[in-house]
Design brief:
Elements lengths: L1 H7 L10 H10 L12 H14 L3 E2 L2 E6 L3 E6 L8 E5 L15 H13 L4 H9 L3 H5 L7 H5 L8 H20 L7 H13 E4 L8 E4 L7 E2 L7 E5 L2 E5 L9 E4 L6 H8 L11 E2 L1 H4 L7 H9 L7 E3 L4 E2 L1 H8 L5 H10 L8 H31 L5 H22 L5
Parallel strand pairs: 7-10
Antiparallel strand pairs: 1-4, 2-3, 3-10, 4-9, 5-6, 8-9, 11-12, 12-13
Helix pairs in contact: 2-5, 3-5, 4-9, 8-10, 15-16
Bound molecules: S-adenosylmethionine.
Protein name: SET domain-containing protein
Organism: Myriangium duriaei CBS 260.36
Pfam families: SET
Length: 414
């Protein structure tokens, strides 16, 4: 509607920082009805929903709702039948950067968002009223808060989690440099975090280049383990969310962001899913610890492509094939070992029990180190260094790892 388009130009340009500011921004936001004088958190999502519909986004029987521990999410407002299109976002409603040859897809999207934030683009302005704030990111993402980034307590993180954080920091630095932004540029970090936590990969069949894009409204959707949620389809007409089963009123609509371990979910998105079948516990720190892996063993494993990436799956209490191979280096002759690698079977006696016993011994030694690390990390948190919520979620991850390892060495909790 023309009158609205004009008013939208007055939308806040800089994304709001606090929940309060988000409310204020949407109060000031002229997408709201002219009569609106105060806007509650609930209202601003209603206003955004109206805006999404005006952009050609299809929304069937779902509405954004505030959900404990997960920010906003999508709840059904009426029953939905299996196979129904719940949300459809056409390309014209997306925040879609131009393809770039020299930028990573995430840098290209960040650059696009940074650019839009300095214009009166109505879609950007509408999205900014409902996106998480900088303070939301500071309390959930360790790599986001500069104070946390500079504190020297990363050595107290589980190694696998520290590795995942480190990769994000390196990627962000790479993209910041590529975009010619100053070190410590908060605008860059905020939009990079938006791209990192809410974007979709856009490469419909036939498209030459893939891009990362923002799909307004669809990005309210929270994550569930692989195989459990709705189906997200992509074709040249856009993104479509399809109901995987019948839903009653008031159920949350979820889809998977990928079969991610809790290390990846925590580092990347700031949450974990206890009990998820997709979780895996890295055993690298345990198996490759100096006293357990001699130089020759490492060399042998490296030569066959089996050095590292060892894991335990908590939901099944099983170790992966790579771990089986690594632990057998010390138990088998080279002929027996090669036979195992090729067939997954012990040529002579079954070595499964010996493998398990040797790993249990390593884990028992490691659990003592872990207790030491968590005690120190609690101290850092209780002294008020670093962000309490971030440190608490890292301590929770330590607990998940400890529980999984404990269950492996003592499945019946004797
Ligand atoms: C694409 S957004 C989803 C919408 C978001 N909850 C919001 O408030 O706007 C992704 C973010 O949602 C949160 N999230 C998604 N799935 C979650 C889950 N299963 N449990 C807890 N938080 C979740 C995390 O903060 C994540 O970074």
């Amino acid at each position: 509607m023309p009158s609205r388009a004009k008013k939208r130009q007055r939308l806040a340009k800089t994304p709001p920082d606090t929940e309060e500011e988000r409310d204020t921004a949407s109060t000031n936001n002229s997408i709201s009805a002219a009569t609106t004088t105060t806007t509650t958190t609930d209202d601003k999502h209603k206003i955004f929903t109206t805006f999404a519909l005006s952009q050609g986004i299809t929304i069937t029987n779902v509405a954004p709702s505030l959900l404990p521990g997960r920010g906003m999410g999508l709840l059904t407002t009426a029953p939905i039948r299996s196979g129904t299109t719940i949300i459809h976002v056409p390309p014209k409603a997306m925040l879609l950067p131009r393809p770039s040859n020299n930028l990573s897809p995430q840098a290209a999207l960040t650059s696009h968002l940074l650019h839009l934030s300095t214009t009166s683009d109505p879609r950007y302005a509408a999205c900014a009223t409902v996106w998480p704030t900088r303070s939301d990111f500071r309390s959930s993402l360790a790599w986001f808060a500069p104070t946390d980034r500079n504190l020297d307590y990363k050595h107290l993180f589980p190694k696998s989690l520290a590795g995942a954080y480190e990769r994000l920091v390196v990627d962000a630095e790479h993209d910041r440099t590529a975009l010619g932004r100053e070190e410590g540029d908060e605008e860059f970090m905020y939009h990079w975090a938006i791209a990192n936590t809410r974007s979709f990969s856009w490469k419909p069949a036939g498209a030459r280049e893939g891009r990362m894009v923002i799909c307004p409204f669809l990005d309210y959707m929270n994550h569930c383990q692989a195989g459990d949620g709705c189906e997200v389809k992509m074709d040249s007409r856009g993104y479509t969310l399809v109901a995987n089963r019948n839903y009653d009123t008031g159920e949350e609509i979820l889809a998977t962001y990928g079969a991610h371990s809790n290390d990846k979910l925590l580092a990347h998105y700031g949450f974990t899913m206890p009990g998820s079948q997709d979780d895996s516990i890295s055993l690298d720190e345990i198996i490759l610890a100096g006293k357990h892996a001699h130089k020759e063993q490492r060399h042998t494993l490296e030569s066959v492509g089996y050095l590292g990436n060892y894991s335990l799956t908590p939901s099944t209490n099983e170790i992966c094939f790579r771990t089986q191979v690594a632990l057998r280096t010390r138990l088998l002759t080279s002929n027996e070992w090669e036979y195992y690698m090729g067939s997954g079977d012990d040529i002579a006696n079954d070595k499964s029990e010996e493998v398990k016993e040797s790993l249990c011994r390593m884990i028992r030694g490691h659990i003592e180190n872990m207790t030491d690390m968590t005690t120190k990390l609690k101290q850092v948190r209780d002294e008020g260094k670093g962000h309490t919520q971030v440190l608490s979620s890292i301590l929770e991850r330590w607990r998940q790892i400890q529980d999984a390892l404990q269950k492996y060495i003592d499945p019946f909790g004797t």
